[in-house]
Amino acid sequence: MTAGSKKSLWQRVRRELSANRYVYLMALPVVIYYIIFCYAPMYGAQIAFKRFDVAKGIMGSDWVGLRYFAEFINGPYFFRLMRNTLLISFYELIFAFPAPILLALLLNELRSEKFKRTVQTIIYLPHFISIVIICGMIHDFVSRDGVITDLLVLLGMERTNLLGDPAFFRSVYIISGIWQGVGWGTIIYLSALTGIDPQQYEAAIVDGANRFHQIWYITLPGIAPTITTMFILQLGKVMSVGFEKIILLYNPNTYEVADVISTYVYRMGLSEGTQFSATTAIGLFSSAINFLLILTANQVTRKLSHTSLW
Amino acid sequence: MAIKRSVSGRIFDSANVIFMLLMIFVTLYPFWHVLAASFSDSGLLLRHTGALFWPEGFSLSAYEHVLQNQRIFTGYLNTIFVVVAGTALNVLMTSLGAYVLSRKKFAMRRVLTIAIVFTMYFSGGMIPRYIVINNYLHLGNSLWALILPGLVSTWNLIVMRTAFFGVPESIEESARLDGANDFVILFRVILPTIMSTVAVIILFYAVGHWNAWFDAALFLRKKEKYPLQLVLREILILSSTESMTNDVDFVDKEAIGESIKYATIIVTTLPVICIYPFLQKYFVKGVMIGAVKG
């Protein structure tokens, strides 16, 4: 125990306040921001357990317990929404997640530094194009007489508007997502690759390892912690499929395969309906699952590979 | 370093280069297609099938319609306001937050860090957020609804804080001996030494504002407040080119409507594509900083 700790609590508080008075002043707007725009909505999420009445406000509305959760789980759309959400997330996990890892490994094998930089510059570009424009281009390219439809007809498909057909929606969604995101996704892995000690490769070459051995035994293990981290983060998003893009691509014909939890919440809460309490309950249900998933994944990977978010 | 290259290694290298050339083509072709279509004669374009490598005929009429369109013009103005005002406030708030969280002698640091990072993993959800912004703050129909709710991105805050940790403490110590307070240290001492990170943060926020449309769709009802992306959504996704084709014969409407879509994409994407090559080197660096676990 130091002499300082013998001073009264009040004295220590005053000392902290005076030593860090500017820091407190700087923290103030940031703290206010987080309270209003992050914690107030969390507090407001209690309307999931209430019958929200605009006139009575969040606090004044009457409690109804778990009624809206029960209604959702027993409701007609529960199965469809869960299936679509989990299926799209699952496809993203098996197709869209590994794609940038593979591409980063291949980029890393390019001999010409200049060519590599050129490729990188070009494949990052789609990431910066707005999702509205990307979806506008998708609508055009896969329409009845779009250029991608033309190509598929050439390969023997029957001419149709791909976005109007439930059979194609998820493929269009996933493939266009890879097209837009794969290049940008490589950055994090390429930066992890720069951290690998070149001496490891030299030693491996002396031992007679070929290129594929080097990738398998040195490069991949070298970026494994980054892959794990990205995987945990991806798992934390399983229940919140990127709804902005789905809203821009789906239509009533494809709701059967395209409607996910977040798009349903948006439609029933803010566009077609105003069921604030019921949709808040659905939103809370999916955030809770997300949170549990990321927590579990974090614990499991910490045990298995000593890599974790916190 | 001389490495003997085996036959299989050389085959792999060639295949890899060919694959990368294919990647370049697949990435760029959609944009090229749109560009070629936007200069095409709308009648000829309608009859064209398959890939388009060169305009079918030549016509600027789609661009005339787009450039005369009042809504695209006001959309640009609204977006520019949001990008400039929004990004300035974003960077100010993010710097303050990052500075506070990087103070090792600040008693509240741990509590604040946990409270802020927690919001990355859990949120109240779309509806309570809407109620707070619309019903309690009455920001509906104001462009501030596109700026204030996203003032601080926690991810960017953590990236910036990580960069702050990299600034040698001796620089700060000597400034403090010269009588500098925390504001002077942040804005005159620390920020200038990490300008490349600041550039990246500016870029991320600005691109985010430029591309955002969903909050605008939620909160704005008056069409003259619409940012560019929301105008685009009406033209490209909801296919309403009516406002631009009032002077066109009914028969030509469908054809010119298609060309207008292409010209609209070009007119609104051009600014991004033009400044992109100059900024490219900065953001790569920034993501690498972010990749270091904070």
CATH superfamily of the largest domain in chain B: MetI-like
Give the C-level CATH assignment of the largest domain in chain A. Answer: Mainly Alpha
> What is CATH's topology name of the largest domain in chain B?
MetI-like fold
Give the overall silhouette of chain A: globular
> Class of the largest domain in chain B in CATH?
Mainly Alpha
How do the helices and strands follow one another from N- to C-terminus of chain B?
HHHHHHHHHHHHH
Output the CATH homologous superfamily of the largest domain in chain A: MetI-like
CATH topology of the largest domain in chain A: MetI-like fold
The fraction of residues assigned to DSSP E strands of chain A is: under 5%
How many beta-strand segments of chain B?
A: 0
SSE class of chain A: mainly alpha
Structural account:
The complex is a heterodimer of chains A (310) and B (294). With 310 residues, chain A is mainly alpha-helical. Chain A has two domains: 3-65, no CATH class; 71-305, Orthogonal Bundle (MetI-like fold). Chain A is 71% helix and 2% strand. Chain A has helices at 9-19, 21-44, 57-60, 67-74, 78-96, 98-109, 113-124, 131-141, 147-154, 169-193, 198-206, 211-235, 243-249, 255-258, 261-271, 276-305, and strands at 50-53, 61-63. The radius of gyration of chain A is 26 Å and the shape is globular. Chain B is mostly helical and 294 residues long. Chain B folds into two domains: 11-59, no CATH class; 70-294, MetI-like fold, CATH 1.10.3720. Chain B has 13 helices and no strands. The relative contact order of chain B is 0.13. The mean pLDDT of chain B is 86. Classes of the chains: A mainly alpha (310), B mainly alpha (294). At the A-B interface, helix 2, helix 6, helix 7, helix 8 and helix 9 of A face helix 1, helix 4, helix 5, helix 6 and helix 9 of B.
